[in-house]
């Protein structure tokens, strides 16, 4: 990891000296000497990183190198920003004060120069130290920013799609057996337990059962909750009840307002009266079950609880009509089948002799995987990138080396641990910090890729030098390439994908997370803290950690007294501070809650999302955190932000999407943040005058642009803008003229959301859409009677969301002509109220793959003509109470793989049962997700 840290710091210092050279003139010689020393150091770090586990002296030396590199970056950047700030203030002062300021600045220059020289001397001494350990200089490494890396990433993007759905081997009989026990009517089991060691595929098996056609037809309501090691009983009950009842906003709030006793009783009665399937994934201890089961009926019921666990005691529940299923490891042939699927392409032109040799090597390595699918898949992630027999032989030699390391530490190296260690060490140096960053997230967390990549960019983990080699790519694009590579290496699992094939969310297996946290601790990369209280001891690094703590994740629960300790001396070194669990935590005292944040002087990433504290404000001291690149208070109840926010000149992402009922006051200082790349304004906000945005030339994302408090002319200056969400709040003067003046920018927009909050803004909303012909995604929310006639000529439009538009019925003719539309969502009266029949005509929607119809109560009939939507593969219909039957044309949709029907009238639900009149229309669909009917 020292190689990655030094490379990141060197890249950062290079960029900073280029961009801010005028502010470093007093220390330029020292900075140049430091850069040279870091470049010399780079050559030794590949070997040093590899030798850490063999020699404690090398490990200590590497830790000191990491710290020295980080300290150097902090000093150079702090000095540059301070000089910049002083020069701006100096222009406002008189001559005498100006001379005093220059004198003081000279003292600072001398001190900073001395500090940089001291660190450079330290790095030089550490390099000599490494050489005394016989560490070799290696220069033939991939820089992470060259053409070969670029070509590799391009290949990864092209070949990525096959890893979205994981290959499954050896689970077929397990699935059938579990399904049989779930759907039988006689001698039913209240609880079905799936148990086995970590990495066997228990969650994968549960997912296949959960989505099985017979299971979906048998049960009425479904819920899936990951319990994990750290859980709160109340949260688990809430999530189960919300999922079982498909609760919308108001009912969801009612559930959240219930006492623990009320919610347990309601869940108990619902499970007793309805036929429900609840999956409790990953229960670790019997104590967890004992706490949860109070809300589960212990009398005769048609509902079933399916749980997965590593603990045999949990699987053998007393006093329950339970069935226990032990998942077995894969046999030798199944293990090779899985490895072969992940490493050798079916279409590859492979020599028989090469195949035989690879099989021989693979079978020998598989002996150490013990039939664990996770271990096999991660090993495959290493081998998939090795094309020659010689490369497979090198991995084979490494496997034996890792197994040898585990001798005497069998408990630590059991199961998949050795292969996870191998896969981490096999990562190129530039991916290691990106992977370790995933350790911030709690167990079983669904990770937003959009947010994760912004973290990476803010931390400087993505090299801008590579951006110069990647024509037309942003830093965020490169970050997504690197995430794709982690997916290819089977260290990250894909959660959901977008309409254009990009990854929207991801997750990591809990065993992978364990390895991630272990390495993060060894590298002093990250520390996690739980339940902060006033009497909490110092948050200093534990004895097993070497170096200063640079990143902090804080998991809060109801026992916490505060957000962060202000007495901790390590705060001054932290670069990332991420809070989790804020929505479940209510502070005992709101006064000064955010004040301790002022101690985090070099912080780059701050995520304080979901803070429920109505009298909390961002403190004025936030303006002192000049290193900040990422600041998010999303879903928090913060009403004001201080003018000092304008000091955050390095900020790249500002997320002010506070709770929707909060009317936030925005000072007109955002114009000073010229490095902003992503700006998310509140849903409701006020400002004195207009919020100026024209200076934000790097801006890529602009959410909640208000026609009332922003000047639309500013958009014309945002030449890098790609995503725009705009609110039309009143009559816009000279809109046509404004749109003409901003046309070059609007032509580059790729994602557009237009929210019309007036009854008179329909035409203006459509004018905005007509000015963005290059869009891939379009969302229209609010009254819009007619679509632009030229919409069917938009070459890139693949996703369209219509919400409460009240379109005329004939507008369906425009929609069905969209040639490349793959995803269509119709929500809550997308057509005018007198529209009773929705017709999908023959030949219409030629490319549509995903259709979602929701809350269209006025519709009494859906018609799907033969030849309509020929490529449709997923269809969801819910909350359409007027529909009593499904269209006959569904039987023509031969590519339909998944059909979801939820919260429809009982008559329709009755007709689509296996013996119902409409079942023949959908019997060809492999996956039927039939939810609860309306009362």
Distance between the termini: 58 Å
- The average pLDDT is 84
- Classification by helices and strands: alpha/beta
β-strand amount? 5-15%
Question: What would you note in describing this structure?
Answer:
The chain is α/β, with parallel strands linked by helices. The protein has six domains: 2-132, Single alpha-helices involved in coiled-coils or other helix-helix interfaces (Up-down Bundle); 147-164 and 331-508, no CATH class; 172-326, 3-Layer(aba) Sandwich (Rossmann fold), CATH 3.40.50; 524-668, Leucine-rich repeat, LRR (right-handed beta-alpha superhelix) (Alpha-Beta Horseshoe); 689-771, no CATH class; 785-935, Leucine-rich repeat, LRR (right-handed beta-alpha superhelix) (Alpha-Beta Horseshoe), CATH 3.80.10. Helices cover 37% and strands 14% of the residues. The chain is built from 29 helices and 29 strands. It has a 17-stranded parallel sheet, sandwiched between helices. The chain has a five-stranded parallel sheet with strand order 2-3-4-1-5, with helices on both faces. Helix 26 (762-770) links the parallel strand 20 (751-756) and strand 21 (777-781). Helix 9 packs across helix 11 (260-273). The longest helix has 38 residues, at 95-132. The model is unreliable at 91-103, 141-165 and 534-544 (pLDDT under 50).
Lay out the secondary structure:
Elements: H1 2-19, H2 28-51, H3 56-90, H4 95-132, H5 147-158, H6 172-183, E1 191-195, H7 202-210, H8 213-218, E2 221-226, H9 233-245, H10 249-257, H11 260-273, E3 276-283, H12 286-292, E4 304-309, H13 312-315, E5 322-326, H14 332-343, H15 352-366, H16 373-383, H17 389-405, H18 417-425, H19 432-437, E6 447-448, H20 449-458, H21 464-469, H22 475-488, E7 493-497, E8 503-507, H23 510-522, E9 527-530, E10 551-555, E11 576-580, E12 605-607, E13 630-632, E14 653-655, E15 663-665, E16 678-680, E17 684-686, E18 701-706, E19 723-728, H24 735-741, H25 743-746, E20 751-756, H26 762-770, E21 777-781, E22 799-803, H27 812-815, E23 823-827, E24 837-840, E25 850-854, E26 861-864, E27 874-878, E28 898-902, H28 906-911, H29 919-922, E29 927-930
Parallel strand pairs: 1-4, 1-5, 2-3, 3-4, 9-10, 10-11, 11-12, 12-13, 13-14, 14-16, 15-17, 16-18, 18-19, 19-20, 20-21, 21-22, 22-23, 23-25, 24-26, 25-27, 27-28, 28-29
Antiparallel strand pairs: 6-8, 7-8
Helix pairs in contact: 1-2, 1-3, 2-3, 2-4, 3-4, 5-22, 6-7, 9-11, 14-15, 14-16, 15-17, 16-18, 17-18, 20-22
